[in-house]
Amino acid sequence: MQTQHAEAPSGRTAPAVELRGLTKRYGSIVACDDVHLTVPQGEIHGLLGQNGAGKSTLVKMLLGLVSRDAGQILLGGRSVEIPDPLAAAELGIGMVHQHFSLVNELTVWENVTLGEPGRPDPARTKALVRSIGERYGLTVDPDVRVEELSTGERQRVEIIKCLRRDPNLLILDEPTSVLTLAESRELFSVLRRVVQDEGRTVILISHKLDEILDATDHVTIMRSGRVVAQRATCDTDERELAREMVGRELSKWVAASALGDLDRLVDPSHSTDAAMLDRTESIDEDRFPVRLRITDAYLSEEGRPQLQGLSLELRAGEITGLAGIEGNGQRALGDVLSSLIPLDSGTVEVDGVALPTGRPGVMHRAGIGVIPEDRHQSGCVLDMSVAENLVMSTVNSVATRGMVSRSRIRANAERLIEQFEISTPSPDTPMRQLSGGNQQKVVLARELSLDPKILVAAYPTRGLDVGAIEYMTQQLHAAANRGIAVLLISTELEEILTLSHHIAVIHRGAIVGRMRRVDVDAERLGMMMGGQAA
Amino acid sequence: MSDTATRPAPPAPPKSTGVAVTTAIWWRRALPMAALYAVSLGIALTLAALLVMMTGASPWSAVEALYEGSLASPAAIGLSLDKAAPLLIVALGTCIAARAGLFNIGQEGQLLIGAAVFTTIALFMPGPGPLVLIVALIGGALGGAFWAGIAAVLYFWRGIPVVITTLLLVYISAQVVFYSVSQSWWLQEHLPTGGVMAPQSDLLPEDRWLPHFGEYPGLNFASTIVIALVLTVIVTVMLRRSTWGFRLRMLGMNRSAARRAGVSALVFGGTALLLSGAFAGFAGAAMVGGGNHRMQPGISENSGWDGLLVALVARENPVLAVPVAIFFGMLRAGGGFLASTGVPRYIVDVVTAILVLAVVFPPAFRLYQRQIATRRQAKALAAATSGAAA
Ligand SMILES: Nc1ncnc2c1ncn2[C@@H]1O[C@H](COP(=O)(O)OP(=O)(O)OP(=O)(O)O)[C@@H](O)[C@H]1O
Ligand SMILES: [Mg+2]
After folding, report:
1. Distances from the Cα of A285 to the Cαs of A334, A497, B40, in angstroms?
2. pLDDT exceeds cutoff 80 at B296
3. Are B136 and B300 within 8 A, CB to CB?
4. A311-329 as b/e, with b when 16 or more CB fall inside 10 Å?
């Protein structure tokens, strides 16, 4: 399509990027199928699609990370070969990846200079990190080691790394899935400026429809490796985008959450959705037994306090949303409940029984399921198969007399793959080869399938497409209905408001406030998250 | 060539299916590897021939000698198997530790300690031969496990890297073993008459030897190789199919995920390290009981090191370790024969070393290439992530 543009003679009118018939196969899977895409200079172009639609693969071909099987890439009207990322860099293409490419052991400024020729200049780089941080609203301390940063802060480093060289074409693969609403808005205003004032071009991959509508000029929607629709953003709306992407209508409630429609969420009278009414019923505090009780938890890592007297109760059948700004102890809490680190003081009790913190597997055995913040770090083993990842914490359940039964692993995998619509060539495919969202789904599927007493879900919808978010939302709700005590950790108020019965606010490693969902007052919540007494 | 015009045009290549693509990829990977092996072996053989010629012998007769010593007769084959067995056992243990992500390189030391413990028990324990033999073999394995255990304790208690401690313990073990065979209250030989006492132990009573199959001119070998093959099957099945192997793999590939799922690095990693030590110790015990029948400081003939090498060449795959160990065993047997034809021992060692290098080189080269490529990619990625250079 649109081949008439391609022969544009002068560089002035030639599109910044033009892809003609790009195709990539992995074995029998066609990740990208004859993709045509034209992005004019100086616009933000959105790329939408379900998990596994081929978005990452497409932009990886642009970056020379994946070799294409067929098709042509034109930059500024010129046909180019991009054999490797170095060539892409030379051509002025920069990318922020879906998964981090930072070295955890190095500091922020070291990561920023990484891969550059010549001797690093600490003072200059640090100043640069600070100035970029100020200019783009991406503040981060250049002297901190990356492993001490929260996920959101790591994402900022990635973006700084990319922005500091002023690429002509900037590709962002789900950059905001780990940013707070305010942070993403800031990022988009930066992108807008970069595009309008400096004439650069941006390709933005996102699952958040409101972002796409807010930030882009045109949007391309992919499904199963094909381009199914292209729209000028001003001529479309979220409902149409969602429909094109998923191929069906979504429930209002989920759409509201996915679209970030805060007002509709805060005021339940706007909705007649049955699920919503169910959630706004006042909940009798004493009807549900306490499943998890954390008392006076203190924890510091390398001298940095993470938890400072955190106390929290989770009741059976309730979803407690842990609201808070990223970096206020959420990660440490998740790690403690994953048995990864011990508390300095304080107790964790499940059904009244105190657990030794930090001992491998104790939390899991006590019935705490965790969907961790960083799936790659502790959520899955990338070099094991999907099927193996799905039984990771319960190998005994698919084994007889210490021997693992392949057929049972496979049966379990096939069931969950179907149930959670995980798109994978086969259960035996290595986890590494799945698309980002599908890796997520594997972790979700495993933890939910274990039917734990307590489920800790950290950013459970991060990286999921709207369809999958809908399913996820239903699943968490169903889990609570089955009597599971759910802790939902998120920085996104929409997500918390959509799902929670109770909301607890975390600030500087302690719970600073608690309220029932029905009593939510957005202003008060915001103040508490900012640490102001309310 | 010129008749292509008269022929009908060849059918268009079918749209490549998944299978075809996979096969193509397989060939693209396998072919350079085969070429690499050919080149590397070719260079090695040339070098070896030159070396042998420098000593005045003919290279062809050297090849003949290598063949004579390792394959030509049933007895030679038996010798090759005898030499291969301890290497295979050591390699199996190495595979286990590697699976847990731990790199034990002190097999030589663990093997020596195992041999010393075996000899001590076999010489001093009273009782019926077979019973003593079994106890002594188990003792040898425990000795090796203990030696690896020191490294395990230092690692899990103080975080000292296993690579360093296991290596240093090799040197200590050599001292311990030498001490043992030069102390008359311990292992040193007791001569009836006051001759010069060599630093070695008494010969074991014959009922404490490992059973031997066959008689000399025919195919004959110690039962060690049989034990080694049985162990290979057990280790393979355990690593691949057991929940223990599953957890070990998890631990080796992602510590945090393993910890969350209840796989303790201390318990599983520690066990893996102890097991790899036990295998090396057992190999040492079997070398005394199955071949030498007495303890000598040089008994190992670097079997610990070579066993580690076997595991590396076999890419820590127990099944692949079998042919690799047998190849190494053949080189050892043939090398011994070559030395007996008058070629200086050190030349023999150099020649076998060159051949080993030739076999190790291709995978190592590939690994190196991959590392370079990864590093370049990482660099490029970092560069690309930050866009075009200003
Ligand atoms: N290295 C690989 N080997 C085999 N298959 C792969 C590989 N990388 C991606 N795929 C497959 O290609 C398809 C597209 O993956 P891609 O990562 O492009 O999806 P995506 O649109 O980015 O999805 P998400 O929103 O989940 O990140 C998926 O089905 C995936 O399983
Ligand atoms: Mg992706």
Report:
1. 25, 19, 75
2. yes
3. no
4. ebbbbbbbbbbbbbbbbbb
| Cross-strand pairs, A400 | A403
Phi (first) and psi of residue A264, to 5 degrees:
-65, -30
Question: Structure tokens of A96?
Answer: 């922020």
Any idea where the domains of chain B sit in the sequence?
Answer: 70-189+200-206+222-335
Domain regions of chain A by residue span: 17-92+166-249, 274-367+452-529
CATH of A274-367+452-529, one of 3.90.226.10, 3.90.1750.10, 3.40.50.300, 3.40.50.1820: 3.40.50.300
Give me the residue from A96, A365, A380 closest to B385, CB to CB.
A96
Q: How confident is the model at residue A487 (pLDDT cuts 50, 70, 90)?
A: very high
- Spatial CA neighbour of A514 closest among A346, A372, A314: A314
Best probe of the B interface among A105, A114, A398, by most B CBs < 10 A, is A114
Bridge partners (DSSP) listed for residue A49? A222
What's the CA gap between B261 and B253, in Å, rounded? 13
Give me the interface pTM, i.e. the ipTM.
Answer: 0.77
Tell me the CATH class for A17-92+166-249.
Answer: alpha beta
Q: What are the structure tokens assigned to A76, written together?
A: 């500024």
Mind listing the pLDDT tens digit for each residue in A87-100? 887 788 888 887 77
With beta carbons less than 8 A apart as the criterion, state whether B280 and B112 touch.
no
Among residues B122, B123, B107, B118, the alpha carbon closest in space to that of B173 is found at B107
Q: Retrieve residue B183's tokens.
A: 């102390």
Contact A386, A428 (CB under 8 A): yes
Q: Contact B388/A94, CB-based, under 8 Å?
A: yes
Q: Is A423 in the pocket of ligand 1 (CB under 6 A)?
A: yes
The pTM score is 0.79
pLDDT surpassing 90 at residue A307 = yes
Which atom of ligand 1 sits closest to the CA of residue A225? 14
Tokens of B45: 């053989």
C-alpha–C-alpha distance, residues A179 and A326, integer Å:
9
Residue partners of B87: CB distance under 8 A and separation at least 6? B283, B303, B306, B307, B310, B325, B328, B329
